């Protein structure tokens, strides 16, 4: 693996975090704008606060979400770097290989 692949969280943590539909929906909510923990919980009324916070911990462990305290509130933001790293390492490489294969087949 390259040095870039070792920066940040383990890819397995990122894949695990992205595996759950609720966590992906949480990331979608944070993609639009930073939210407080309370506002994020309010976006998912079908799930209790404790469950949202458990999912949030998984996202934070994978470094997909960052949090900072502002007074009594905790402000959460999307940290897209791990997703970009996954894209660059996996999706980008496989897409290039597929294009090369198609080019050889058509050539």
Index terms:
107 residues, alpha+beta, 6 helices, 3 strands, elongated, disordered N terminus
Description:
With 107 residues, the chain is an alpha+beta fold. It is 65% helix and 13% strand. A hairpin with a 2-residue loop joins strand 2 and strand 3. The model is unreliable at 1-6 (pLDDT under 50).
Which helices and strands occur, and which strands form pairs?
Blueprint: H1 3-6, H2 11-19, H3 21-32, E1 35-36, H4 37-42, H5 49-61, E2 65-70, E3 73-78, H6 81-106
Antiparallel strand pairs: 1-3, 2-3
Helix pairs in contact: 2-5, 3-5
Uncertain segments are 1-6
Averaging pLDDT over every residue, what do you get? Answer: 88
What order do the helices and strands follow?
A: HHHEHHEEH
Q: Let me know the largest β-sheet.
A: 3 strands, antiparallel
Question: How far apart, in Å, are the first and last alpha carbons?
Answer: 32 Å
Shape: elongated
The level of helicity is 55-70%
Total strands: 3
Class derived from helix and strand content: alpha+beta
């Amino acid at each position: 693996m390259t040095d870039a692949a070792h920066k940040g969280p383990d890819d397995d943590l990122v894949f695990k975090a992205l595996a759950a539909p609720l966590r992906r929906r949480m990331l979608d909510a944070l993609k639009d704008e930073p939210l407080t923990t309370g506002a994020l919980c309010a976006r998912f009324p079908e799930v209790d606060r404790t469950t949202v916070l458990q999912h949030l911990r998984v996202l934070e462990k994978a470094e997909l979400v960052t949090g900072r305290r502002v007074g009594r509130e905790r402000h959460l933001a999307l940290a897209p770097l791990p997703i970009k790293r996954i894209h660059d390492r996996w999706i980008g490489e496989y897409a290039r290989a597929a294009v090369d294969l198609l080019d050889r087949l058509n050539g």
